[in-house]
Design brief:
Four copies of one chain form a homotetramer. Chain A has 298 residues and is α/β, with parallel strands linked by helices. Chain A has nine helices and 13 strands. The first copy, chain A, folds into two domains: 94 residues, ACT domain (Alpha-Beta Plaits), CATH 3.30.70.260; 193 residues, 3-Layer(aba) Sandwich (Rossmann fold), CATH 3.40.50.170. Chains in contact: A-B, A-C, A-D, B-C, B-D, C-D. At the C-D interface, helix 1 and strand 2 of C face helix 1 and strand 2 of D.
Chain lengths: 298, 298, 298, 298
């Protein structure tokens, strides 16, 4: 059976009585069925409580008379959004929506390592990642044949310290031209500038260490020297503070003294690609809210 | 800060439009704030979709005029329940409620092994398990000093094949007299009869195997002979079909060829007590719905 | 730095005093350095203790005068093996050897699912799996383009109940002609006959269930119906008893009531390919001894 | 069946040809059977390769004529050690030995938290930890009744900044008087001075964070603020550099945004006690070699 078209709403608001009922009631009054709902109330050490909710709404009845009445005569997505904005203004809430029939467009940035690249494309082809991957961008030509094998346009933009501003501008231009909604750094071995991150859509990075331990370069060598018994990987949104962005997903694998740094790299590669795939999936399913330095994954 | 008194509702109903809004709306109209809500819709291979919801409601405003109006003049818990029953009848829903200021009363049944016994009592004393443990029942005197050390009344009821019906009747009498809400088999090495299970409150058992593999006796020896690489434990509600009741929680630990059955017992003991504690906690927090042979843990 | 050529010996013997010293002494007397050694003594419930040892020996000094003297004048691998056979006869030991400069030749058998296929080939290309993959055999043409992309000859041998004996004979002929040392069933959806298994080299299969639970077809649907909280995968040597062969590796992943059978398939796919890769790697590194229904992985 | 008396040797040496054969041969020539042997060669980035070996030797034949001959006429443990020292001098090796019939004597240092304290004592009573626990030392009287319940002498030595030198001297005196071989800090909430650590037997500490992340105080609060998805615990030898000693064991547990710092403390407590118990067990079984900032656990 084919799934109905769904709208997925993410809402963040200061906590207040009646929030679940009012948000659910909004869709109920429009005759739209809620397929899935989850919420969380955060009690920070400072400041007031914060409320977060994810609602998956069946849009089948959006054309009904009941929806028309609730939405002020129109039954377009625009009308739905305008009406929901009205409620959110009352609640001092921020919100966003994604529609299941408009798959996000993802650009992969890679360098020379292929594991994460293959992994993401194969998952997307198998239907695990609800997105399109219209372009791959790299600072090296190494992976062009792989991209070609999958028939994804490949843009090679080499970079040096001197040409970095221009190269980043070229990337931004590509992202704009291809209407990219999400950038995934699938082992892209370049630090992105503040300027780039401010102008780009959200960027997810995979760090091959169990952050916040082992920030910076060669984390497996650091981990080996320190004699840790578990190694990990961390997927996070890229921010101007390197390796400090909000963490979306992490996982670890056990290692022993028998495994030198090279072996750790091998074990770590399996962790990295699973962690990155889970993080990208959570973002594409519109489950991730950023709250300060943390994420709420609903 | 002390937490407000909360009512925790669990609801199961045939899926239908507007359920989240109607259930949340019920409390909202009475002026009662929803502190936490989660729901799940199950799509079985046969039969229609089923909807499950857990609502944690702040009862602080139960004495308010608004609640009084919604609940037909009275603001007792009885009135709240009667009014909620009215809604659930409309929705063909079943439901149950637990109040945070009425901790469930748990009886532990043990035999000679102390690990799970110690573990549960220590967790309860540390505030991890929201319950009282007014009695311990055993078919052996071995653990009486431990119960005494914790000042929990200990009832020793030895049992043989011939005296089983009488012994089980004695246990039932103890459960009744002490108003027991939940029985936990913390390594109680006796099979309970159908008759007992029908008359007793819910019973949670810990099986030292990764069910459904290795049912029956000596699961670690079975596991060793089969050469498995992981061993596990399963906490489930006891039903008349031995080792077949709905699973609440499971976990595993890695073993190697180096570990004989005795060593597996040792590794398994750690898994058992953690799995049992998690399952008991989920039950006490009123998170577990039984749906046929499965559980939904909200 | 390039590694020296190594011989990896696996030995199994009835336990007896002095085994470690005698086996290690054999190589020491020939002037051959032991790079790595591990052993295990198994104490079965029936029968006497069994001893297992893996020795990784540096062959650099095989041409030395000292080796020549110990090996009876010759310093070929054949002479080394003959001399070691002499010792093993004294010890009533069985043994086998693999040389690091003679990578095993692996045939992949696939049907239509590509995840395990891609995974194994990519790992081999990255140097994680010390082997060659000279052929891929399938009963369906689906994955031919993938094999072609990797430039691995692809043989499509469709099969029906009526043609099974002939098809299996064709596979055996291909295995022989290409000097295959190991067959990996990377989601090959056909049961292999006893006859085939007796004539073929070792066969490793991946079962998408946590054996011995959920043998047979549709294990994820079985697992979902039973309401388990963890799903798993098992890599084992194929034997005539379906899903009963010696287990090489297993792992699990956590699932909840929220995940229907399809979602379990997705989660399970990640477990399957990691478990299969680990098992194939252990076999290729000559770490796996089969002892009755179990494996010893040194 | 009762196990034979065993000697467990740990050896560390610069790597050189023939080490396994010479070390195993030493015992073989004395007619002593090796029950278990494992070794590891470490290839550091700087300096030469290092070799580590653990040998478990059956002492049953120590009184035999053959042993007498090899050990120069005497068959005492002292003679065995003197003879082995001779070999180790030739190999430039360091070594240590522990005998299975001389259980190490462990002092527990605690403050007010009981979870790790209960856990270690219960494991010791169940035979999981091959040691004696003759004393418990605390800076608070809180856990005295628990120690009394287990009939372990309890020494309460309160401490302030001003009295620290005297209090540590008192602890050292207790350790000496009770012939303590190992100190376990089972949530002892005081930093120990350099002076103390230099004079005390080995000290194992449990840090409730996944070191090297979250060093210092309140690691769970740090972890929550950073939004990590896994929390961990680390058991390590205490050294003068706080939280920097060689790591013996680590593990993690998954957390979500739903879990505030208090809930993390609860989840972490389970990880802590399992990690600490594993580390203490490895030390007691004479498996741990310290190599610079790392440990080798054979």
């Amino acid at each position: 059976m084919s799934s109905p078209v769904r709208a997925i709403f993410l809402v963040a608001a200061p906590d207040q009585p009646g929030l679940v009922a009012r948000l659910a009631g909004f869709f109920s009054e429009a005759g739209l069925n809620i397929l899935d709902a989850s919420n969380h109330t955060d009690l920070p050490e400072e400041g007031g409580a914060r409320f977060f909710m994810r609602l998956v709404v069946d849009l089948t009845a959006l054309a009904s008379a009941r929806a028309q009445q609730k939405l002020g005569g129109s039954t377009t997505r625009k009308a739905l959004e305008a009406s929901f904005q009205g409620l959110c203004t009352e609640l001092s809430a921020t919100w966003s929506v994604r529609y299941s029939d408009v798959p996000p467009r993802v650009a992969l940035l890679v360098t020379r390592e292929s594991a994460c690249f293959y992994d993401l494309v194969l998952r997307q082809r198998q239907g695990e990642l609800p997105c399109e991957i219209p372009i791959v961008i790299s600072n090296h030509p190494t992976l062009e044949p792989v991209a070609e094998g999958f028939r994804i346009p490949f843009f090679c933009l080499p970079v040096t310290a001197a040409t970095k501003p221009q190269q980043e501008a070229q990337i931004l231009e590509l992202l704009r031209r291809h209407h990219i909604d999400l950038v995934v750094l699938a082992r892209y071995m370049q630090v992105l500038s503040d300027t780039f991150l401010q102008e780009a859509p959200p960027v997810i990075n995979i760090h091959h260490g169990f952050l916040p331990a082992f920030q910076g370069a060669k984390p497996y060598h650091q981990a080996h020297a320190r004699g840790v018994k578990l190694i990990g990987a961390t997927a996070h949104y890229a921010t101007k503070d390197l390796d400090q962005g909000p963490i979306i997903e992490q996982d670890v694998a056990r290692v022993t003294h028998q495994q030198g740094p090279e072996e750790m790299v091998r074990v770590g590669r399996d962790v990295e690609r699973i962690v990155l795939a889970r993080a990208v999936r959570a973002h594409l399913e519109h489950r991730v809210l950023v709250e300060g330095r943390r994420t709420i994954v609903l």
